[in-house]
Specification:
The protein is built from 4 helices and 3 strands. It is an alpha+beta fold. The chain has one domain: 2-Layer Sandwich (Alpha-Beta Plaits), CATH 3.30.70.100. Strand 2 and strand 3 form a beta hairpin.
């Protein structure tokens, strides 16, 4: 009897874990920026419902995102990043938003990567 209960509990836990794993997707997106302020801005913009994890690397310019596609689309992720001034490989930030970024974050005009991270 105890063995049957343990088996049923194990099956339930595995089912829940499997369902959760299937509900998330991982995307890698090219996002332009230069420094640690860019990193904070990009990752903060993605602190939204449906996004489990977002990590941007200032050296590679690659953003790794784990998200639930039932709650947010990859296109919406691109738009969120662009809305805070950072171009992606699919969506360009509005020029006025880009122009309001701090000087060190102006990736279109300056390649700050060679001068080090801020």
């Amino acid at each position: 009897m105890k063995t049957n209960i343990l088996i049923i509990l194990l099956v339930c836990v595995l089912s829940i874990t499997g369902a959760y794993a299937q509900s998330t997707t991982k995307a890698t997106i090219k996002v332009y920026g230069n420094c640690s302020m860019c990193k904070e801005r990009i990752e903060t913009a993605l602190d939204k419902n449906g996004i489990k994890q977002a990590t941007w690397d200032s050296k590679t310019k690659m953003l790794d995102v784990v998200y639930n596609p039932k709650k947010i689309s990859e296109q919406e992720i691109h738009k969120l990043v662009a809305s805070v001034g950072h171009d992606t490989d699919k969506v360009k930030a509005v020029d006025t938003v880009y122009a309001d970024l701090p000087f060190c974050c102006l990736y279109r005009d300056h390649n700050m990567h060679q001068k080090g991270d801020h």
